[in-house]
Amino acid sequence: MKNIKTTLIIIYLFIAFVFAQKAELLTQQVNVENAIRDKVGVTINKLVDRTQYVIIVNARMDRKPSFQFSETKKEDIQYELKPACISFLSSLEITGISTLHLKSINGKVRALTAFCDKKSHSKISDITPEIANQFIRSRARQRVSNKYFSNFDDYVPKLTPTTLNKDIETLKRLFNYFIDMQWTQSNPFRSIKRFKNLPKQRYHFSDNEIKRIMENAGKFYDFYYLLFKTGIRATDAYKLKSDHFDGKYLNIQMNKTGDFLSIPLPEEVLAIIKHRMANSTLFPLLQSDRQRRSCVKNIQRLFEPDFVRNNNINLHTFRHTYAHNMLNKGVPKEVLQTLLGHRSIKTTEIYANWVRKEELERWV
Question: What is this structure's pTM?
């Protein structure tokens, strides 16, 4: 009899232990389910506009949370402008576009979003052809205050037709991206006409100006000489290393286009840069923006402010001068195209009217 009582007590305690464990597991399960529901709710609030979707999260652990879409038509969904612009810029960044070009595009996109903020237009669908025209008209009235010496003589010109046309092309590209992503069905900038841009002669240094520049070059002498004798862009010259040279040839991937340039160098240029080959870069002094600005201003200070602004005097003027000198030597434009790294012969033909009369008369 005593053994039976003992057995019953043991069975009772075992059953009580099992039920206690079961109760604890159920409590933990409920806590986990609540935590999951809270986590899913927070995540969905971040990613999904609740006005567009009905969200149902099942309570039990053995069934996955499900999302039931409402019957909202796709064309009725309103897409935010700023996140869409960020997506566009990110898509450009992964294509390998240069930092300088991306910065320029970013500035134009930010000008649009700033304008839309003032008008309380936050959706892509808010940007109609009329709004697009209003934005371009506002840009045409805008003044530029960062021109050379403008802080001394209050020189604040309007944006040039070239700049405005670049704005239009960039924003057409932006909305074409939105169309590709199926965020909109039309491009409000498609109907905007380009501004008439009168052709302007690209300035090149005269022999006397080159002499004055080189006499006052100081620590920038080698850099100026390289630009003057090769015509390469300053943005490519900044990053030159000894690895870019193979005998008398310069081999480099151009920063602006991503194309490869392979050109022979004059002996006098090789002699000038020979002592720089041991450096990590040929021009370590010009690796900071501050020193690059100083390099440009060192030339500009030799001219009157109005002359600098009207003729856009900068390091790129060496490239124009190189093209002018090569044409005067009788170099065919097809050869000059290769030397300058132009993709299109039309770009090279811009310099065609610089050929001396004597050289032109040879072919008549």
Answer: 0.65
